[in-house]
From TrEMBL:
It comes from Nonomuraea jabiensis. Its cofactor is Zn(2+). Belongs to the creatininase superfamily. This is Creatinine amidohydrolase. It is an enzyme of class 3 (hydrolase).
Length: 266
């Protein structure tokens, strides 16, 4: 059977999915989140970027993209409107059950394209359970986190440029979804002292006399009025193109390595 020229699993009929599974492709499963990223970025940002990255990777590497899971776990942003968050237990269960269903449909090679920090624990736990219970080896790619690692030389001071709603995600969004970015609404956010604490990130505070930070489990809305950290003024589509090139480059190399090590004759 000739399959239609699409890299989207959801566009195939069940008979075509059956045929595809016999070819042992790699399935990319995008998982996002619906949460605030400051006044200038859309709440479904993590989801649309996960899907965009997965689509590009599938086209370039001959993989297929499963329909995306647009909801994730955003426990630290509950104080902001639009925080449509699943619990960790729900996300872990849904992720595991999607992997299990893919295996029942005949697939055995799955890479999760997860684009939210709050998802990491539940999604990795689901993948490890799948390894134990189903025998499949699940891969995990986290584009936003990879961008932090791969873009450091682009900024004078990555520590100041990087942040939630700031770099490099602001630039990446300007390159991928310029119509959904309202840069004119971006406001320098920063972190505000809360009840005597000196916050340094989402759930961390400075401890006097020490370089090591302490963990404090407040809601992020208690220490940030805008929801942003980092420098929101540095966003540019040009920088976003560098993000795309480097993140896609790394993810493609990862997929090739996964392919080499999971093919039937590996
Ligand atoms: Zn996010």
């Amino acid at each position: 059977m000739t399959l239609p020229s699409t890299h989207r699993l959801g566009e195939l009929s069940w008979t075509q999915v059956k045929e595809l599974a016999e070819r042992d492709p790699i399935i990319l499963l995008p998982i996002g989140a619906v949460e605030q990223h400051g006044p200038h970025l859309p709440i479904h940002e993590d989801s649309i970027v996960a899907e965009w990255v997965a689509d590009k990777l599938a086209k370039e590497n001959g993989c297929y993209v499963a329909p995306a899971l647009h909801y994730g776990h955003s426990g630290v942003f509950r104080g902001f409107n639009g925080n449509l968050s699943l619990s960790q237990a729900t996300l872990r269960a849904v992720t595991y059950e999607i992997i299990e269903a893919l295996v029942q449909s005949g697939f055995r090679r799955v890479i999760i394209v997860n684009n939210n920090g709050g998802n990491v624990g539940p999604v990795i736990d689901a993948g490890l359970q799948a390894r134990h219970d189903l025998g499949v080896l699940v891969g995990h790619l986290y584009p936003w986190q990879l961008g932090y690692a791969l873009m450091r030389d682009v900024y004078d001071d990555p520590a100041k440029a990087y942040g939630h709603g700031a770099e490099p995600e602001h630039s990446a969004m300007l390159a991928m979804f310029p119509d959904q970015v309202q840069s004119e609404l971006a406001v320098a956010g920063g972190l505000a002292s809360s009840s005597g604490w000196s916050p340094t990130s989402y759930t961390e505070a400075a401890i006097p006399g020490h370089d090591v930070r302490g963990t404090v489990l407040w809601d992020f809305s208690e220490v940030s009025a805008t929801g942003c950290t980092g420098d929101v003024s540095l966003g540019s589509a040009k920088t976003g193109e560098i993000w795309i090139e480097r993140v896609i480059g790394f993810c493609s190399a990862y997929i090739q390595e996964y392919d080499r090590n999971t093919s039937v004759d590996a």
